[in-house]
Known about the structure:
The protein is of the alpha/beta class. The chain is 27% helix and 15% strand.
Amino acid sequence: MSYLQTMSVTRKSNPMKDTYTPKSECDAASENDRMVPAGGSFTRPRRFFATREDATPQYVSPEDVIRPEDISMIVDPRGRVVDIPSDTGTSRISHHRDLWDLLHVQSPGTDQHILEGSQAAEDFRATDVSRAFDLLRTRLRQTVGQHGWTNIAVASPTAGCGNTFTAANLAASLARVPSSRTVLMDLNMRAPGLATALDISVPASGGNTRDFLEGDIAISDFFVRIGETLALGLNDAMEHDAAEILQNPATARSLAAMREALRPDIVLYDMPPLLGYDDTSAFLPQLDGVLLVSDGTQTMAKHLAECERMLDGQVPLLGVILNRARASSIPRY
């Protein structure tokens, strides 16, 4: 069972005052712009980048017609979407297609109990774990709505804290809000586990996370949709240079294009451990906030303090989720 738990962790920026205690089983553990080659073709659809006279990178999706006058989005060197300056004689065009309904719909496996569609999921909704995630969901939606945020990481100090379990449950809870859109991406490229946790196969023709982030495959080929309100970016390929991939400016452009095309309310990123690798630190410039998952059986105060130090001045720490708390420490209401 799982209950709310408050932790006395000192933090400088904590827009979400409460902390939560969902309990789970342990989790399993070139920047070159690509153009169509003369007289050739790619085996998979690619995204294209053009350049104006002032060398500002521009993005246009392969789902759109590739014409200079149809460019709908410009990103600066950090991958942030900006308006086209009026003095260039080009106006920003809002014709970019909403690709949400074009995503391939995939059904979750019958063995999973998180997503809707099985009796196990219905039974899970009545548990304290599910109610704790619903409470976390509502507080998170309120916080991101107040600040205009979208990109939220779910991270942990060390491996085995229940990071993927937390990200998957939170995404499922968010997806139960009618007329909302949630995107959940597996960015733990050293040990991807989201597809296994949700009992969903990675699309055979969709490539992997690296291919998407580097701009080698289309958005509609990589993401799959679960029902009307949840889209997943799954991965089954281990990458030992994950930190370099996440720091590549192409990654920022690809994620900006995804948000432009899918228009999600919240994007959750299942990240690798903060203290294990530099992957999550490399990705901090792309985030609006971080939810930190701690394990009552292994996380130490010094681990949390070090994570706070790493996040300080970079991105807000929204809260600490305490997993596997001792029953004696859980208040009952």
